[in-house]
Amino acid sequence: MAKIKTKFICQECGYESPKWMGKCPGCNSWNTFTEEIINKETKKNSRGISSNKVLRLKDIEVKEEKRITTKYMELDRVLGGGIVNSSLVLVGGDPGIGKSTLLMQTGDKVAGQGLKVLYVTGEESARQIKIRAERLEMESDNMYILAETNIDHILKNINELEPDLLILDSIQTIYNPDITSAPGSVSQVKEITSTIMRTTKSTNMSTFIVGHVTKQGSIAGPRVLEHMVDTVLYFEGDTQHSYRILRAVKNRYGSTNEVGVFEMRDSGLEEIINPSSFFLESRTENSYGSVITASMEGTRPLLLEIQALISYSSFGNPRRVTTGVDNSRAAMLMAVLEKKAGVQLQNTDAYINVIGGMQVKETAVDLPILCAIASSFREVKIDSNTLIIGEVGLSGEIRGVKDIDKRIGEANKMGFKRAVVPYSNKKNIKNISDDLDMEIIKVKNIEEALNVLL
């Protein structure tokens, strides 16, 4: 009897090894290797002549891609204008963030347009889906539910129903019976995704795939999963807050780094058309340690409130706690503030927070953070109708930021009367200054900024 051959595959990156290893040399993860049986049945490669011909680039005819609107302006924005026919979209996010809710509501909106929608669930029963549908008040007659994990049975139902939109929740629960490894393994995920991709591209059906995420926040399974699909969306949010952000990190049919903002309510997800007013609706006006800035999320400017609390520390090692901004960046800004503005912070605790739980990574919020710290330290209030934008260098200079016109324009619509911006952005501001009902103050360094604000 022939000996069964096996191999060990890392479940994080797909690295293959003939023997088990504690640490993966590919991604440096520990205890991620699982044993899988090697399938001896191999198919001979076809050596026939390809029917595809070489074409000159200018001779290729391009037809406009047909799109299906989801009736959600925020989701259509992230997708680049709607769902493209025969496209494959991967949606990832933390457990309980609202991925299934979003896709069920999207499926109901699409089915309401007379299109067939097949929702395949591998994690819930049909009764559980029905209970959720009643809570979400879904009433479309063209929404079909299939509780199945076998890919062969799923493909059979797809061929019989011929849906316009397929929702697969989730890819880690579906398995191919011809593969010996467990559902969710690297081999299963690669094979299932490849099968769904071939089915999607050969028909006019569009497909949404739900993917689990790892502790690091990336899509679980091999990295090739994200390369195979057309669009990758991440559904982000804080369980302590009601808002959710849908972010596109890959999109073959639209711009990347676009975001859509939603709010989780009892009746499901509701899109937020004006996120700036949503994040600023409960702010306290004219209080020290609080400033307003504009952060770019994709092509959209969002007005955010940054708060800082500086208090005397009786210990030798003061605390530096940040929420929503990088801790190392905040420590660097405090060092610049001490050196260039004479604000002595070595014996104080510093707490910095972005209201609403937003995560801000761009350097355009350097000056707002620095001003909030100085305001709290000196206990001097900053006018709540002032917008502050700028990147701060180690020598105390304020550098220009991109999309300054969009940021100021958003603040102008929200009724702000003054903006403190980098001097190097004066050319961009000059083009829009005539249309603004705002006072624009251009500063070159942090001393000028603090003299204007405090």
Brief write-up:
Helix content is 26%, strand content 26%. The protein contains twelve helices and 23 strands. Helix 8 packs across helix 9 (366-378).
Describe the protein.
There is one protein chain. The strands form 6 sheets. This protein has a 9-stranded mixed sheet, sandwiched between helices. Strand 20 (391-392) and strand 21 (398-399) form a beta hairpin. The chain is 26% helix and 26% strand. The protein is built from 12 helices and 23 strands. Residues 42-47 have low confidence and may be disordered. The protein has 454 residues and is an alpha/beta fold. Helix 8 packs across helix 9. The longest helix is centred in the middle third of the chain and has 16 residues, at 186-201. It has 3 domains: 6-37; 66-273, P-loop containing nucleotide triphosphate hydrolases (Rossmann fold, 3-Layer(aba) Sandwich); 278-453, Ribosomal Protein S5, domain 2 (2-Layer Sandwich), CATH 3.30.230.10. The chain has helices spanning 73-79, 99-111, 126-135, 151-161, 186-201, 224-228, 275-280, 327-341, 366-378, 404-413, 426-430, 446-453; strands at 6-10, 16-17, 33-37, 67-68, 83-84, 88-93, 117-121, 143-147, 165-169, 206-211, 231-237, 243-251, 259-265, 268-271, 290-297, 300-312, 320-323, 348-354, 386-388, 391-392, 398-399, 418-422, 439-443. The termini are far apart.
